[in-house]
Each structure stands twice: as C-alpha cells, then as structure tokens.
Specification:
The chain is α+β, with helices and mostly antiparallel strands. Helix content is 22%, strand content 30%. The N and C termini lie far apart (47 Å).
C-alpha cells in the first residue's frame, strides 16, 4: 500500500512541476535519452522534489529494451537512464545552490558526465514503473557528485554515482 501511495505522490509532484530537461538551452535539448527536441528519443524527465533535496524520474521502458535475460531491462539502458537523470540532477543541484528556482523562464546550466559508476543489484523487470532518485553528495565550482538509486517493483535494482561537470554554452 505504501508503494502505491508513494507512486501517486510522485505523479502528482511531476504533473505540477517543470522538468529540468525542459529548461536546457536550445542547443542542449537534443539528447537521445532526455532531450525534449529529439523526436526518436526517450524523453526522460527529471523533477526536483518539493524540498529540493532530491530529484526523481519515472519511466516504463518499451519492450524493445529487454536484455540478454528475457523480461529484464538491458544494462546499457540502465546506465543511460542514470546518465540522463544524473546530469539533469547535477544541473538542478548547482542551480539550487545559487539560490535559484526552476521556472518556465529558466535556462539552466548544462552538465555532462565525467564519470559514471553503476552497481547492478537485481534485474530490472520489464513492464514495471522504474523510479530513479538522486541526491547531491558534493558540489564544487564546476563539478557535482550525484548518488542515485533505481527502484522497481518495490526493490532497489541498481545504484550509481556520477561525477558531472558544467559546460559552457559554446561547447
């Protein structure tokens, strides 16, 4: 019952908020995993929690992303989801540290992955809602360290740690 209530709360939060990815500058909106302007992409959306301490993304992957073990998500997609959610989270945490909020007019700073480490705990079942939650471990001048968990069917399926770095608009 608790999981169902948590899912309803997450969906309500996500419906009321602006996704971090939708605030990327025009030239940074074409990522296959999370870019809102990539027609063939996944369109992953990450949202800050109400208190700003965490970010969450929720997705149910299409059946085509099954892995070598039938009915389970393949590891490359797990890493992709962590990659896109992690860089969006890093952008949010750096934005928030500056005392800024996320609004429709925000053009958030863009972060890219410098290092991503994934620990696979249990298979991620297909056809299940996957929730990825992140929190900040460290914020530097250009670097943000983000820790993440991937949950499906009530279990932590994978964890990740990312080092993300801010890039200039001219990259």
């Amino acid at each position: 019952m608790g999981t169902l209530i948590n899912r309803r709360i997450r969906k309500k939060v996500m419906m009321q908020k602006i996704s971090i990815q939708s605030t990327y500058g025009e030239r940074f909106q074409h990522c296959w995993g999370c870019g809102p302007k990539n027609e063939q992409g996944l369109h992953l959306k990450s949202y800050p929690s109400d208190d700003g301490e965490t970010c969450i993304a929720t997705v149910v992957p299409d059946a085509m992303y099954t892995g070598g073990v039938p009915h389970n998500l393949f590891g490359g997609m797990i890493a992709t989801l962590f990659d896109c959610h992690g860089t969006a989270s890093a952008a949010w945490f750096a934005h928030r540290q500056k005392g800024l909020e996320l609004t429709e007019d925000t053009v958030i700073g863009r972060f890219i992955t410098a290092h991503l480490e994934v620990d696979f705990k249990k298979p991620v079942p297909m056809g299940e809602e996957i929730n990825i939650t992140s929190h900040v471990e460290e914020i530097g001048e250009r670097k943000v360290v983000v820790a993440m968990e991937m949950e499906a069917a009530g279990d932590i399926r994978a964890t990740a740690k990312m080092v993300a770095v801010g890039v200039k608009d001219t990259m």
